[in-house]
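User: My notes are a mess, but here's the protein and flavin-adenine dinucleotide's SMILES. Can you give me a structure?
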Amino acid sequence: MICLEIIESNQYNRNMEYDVIVIGGGPAGASSAYHCSKLGLKTILLEKQVQSRDKPCGGALSDRCLPLLGENARNAINCRIEELRVYSPDLKSFRFVKNQGSFVLRRVFDQALVRDAQNAGTDIRYETKAISIILTLGGMYTVDVISAGQKEQAVTGRFVILACGLQDNRLIKHIKDKNGNYLQAICPQNEKDYLAICMNSESEIDNNLLNDSESGFTPKTLGIFFGAVPNGYGWCFTKDGYINIGVGCTASLLNQVKIKNAYDSFLNTLRVAHIIPQGLVLNSPRVYPLPFKHTARETVFGNILLVGDAAGFVSPVTGEGIYYSIKSGQLAAESIFNNIKHNLSLSLYQQKWKKAFGYDLNFWGFNLRNTIYKTKERMEFAVRLACIDLSARKRVSEMIMGKRNYKKTILSSLLILPQCILKFFYKK
Ligand SMILES: Cc1cc2nc3c(=O)[nH]c(=O)nc-3n(C[C@H](O)[C@H](O)[C@H](O)COP(=O)(O)OP(=O)(O)OC[C@H]3O[C@@H](n4cnc5c(N)ncnc54)[C@H](O)[C@@H]3O)c2cc1C
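Assistant: No problem, the inputs look usable. Here's the predicted complex:
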């Protein structure tokens, strides 16, 4: 486990000196490294897993990511999403057909993101785990690493970007401030309230099986099933030759829900509704946590910046995290560059992500999530309202696909709410 305790020392090896050390090779780390290198900063990325690592994920990518990607990542997109299907707990559904968003396979996409960083000039070290960050008296950070169980030469840098996702984030709270107090970066008092727990599997599928199915699910469909689990949703993404199925809900409900039972029962629902073929063989599902409530209060500690899941940058409504990881990586890189070149405060990073997406997630997204997910009846009502009104469908679909932020969705939906409710009761 990484120990992110900072201790004062004046010993470090000058041979391995960088402007920026990035810890973690997921979307947040790779994007940070890519943008740092593009800005001319000497950067190294440390990733503890192998190059072909695979992250449990739905792999839906909103279009706002595209301008932030390098060439390899853009070419690694599996397919465009052709249609969105949204289901209520009682399986009342609507379709929204518009070429919007893409699907990626994470084991392919993440490697491509890292390759873009490498092409921009970043030194990449796979199978290299950061185990401690030491603040030297000269103001540099020394990161101790192990590779294949062996302690290796430490890496030294002026800035550290922590992009270690949720796996090592619990230890982030071991960072001490200058008074020796532990900084509670994320994961406040009750971790379970803060996290969502997801279970998913990704498997190959013959597209013809979907074309023949009664449900009319196309091989490039993003299907969301509200209420498949209490306080959460299930998904079925068909990614042109692959199928990704999963469920996610607040971790504090885990005892009640038993995530594996919820996953099995969701699979059964999909089979009974003929959305997936009866005999389809799926790979074993994997469980993974996801930050699901608020972003971190603090994301800058000295010259250490938090990005991506490590900073809690995930939508509390949809669980989308790839965009926020990639965007925060870009903002962190720019903030470091401006600190070095123009002496601007590093805390501008905090202001920038709040402006770019933080207020939207923490206020509008958080309130929307609390309103919609509270009960099955509310989820049912919301989807049924959208079913009967095209402009409501458009708003919900564009929000899910990351085209409309939560503030815009909520405010514009309030305007059409009376007409939707009238239509709803008239139809009844
Ligand atoms: C089941 C599931 C489905 C999801 N579906 C979607 C989706 O469809 N669309 C979407 O946008 N988001 C989705 N998300 C969220 C998305 O996966 C995350 O938000 C995103 O992966 C976060 O990227 P990251 O780089 O911050 O962290 P990660 O992708 O978790 O990467 C962190 C990396 O850091 C490495 N690391 C950790 N500790 C160390 C260390 N000490 N030294 C070196 N390396 C270290 C890890 O090995 C890992 O590779 C989903 C999440 C889950 C769990």
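The longest strand covers residues 150-162.
User: Great, I'll file this with my notes.
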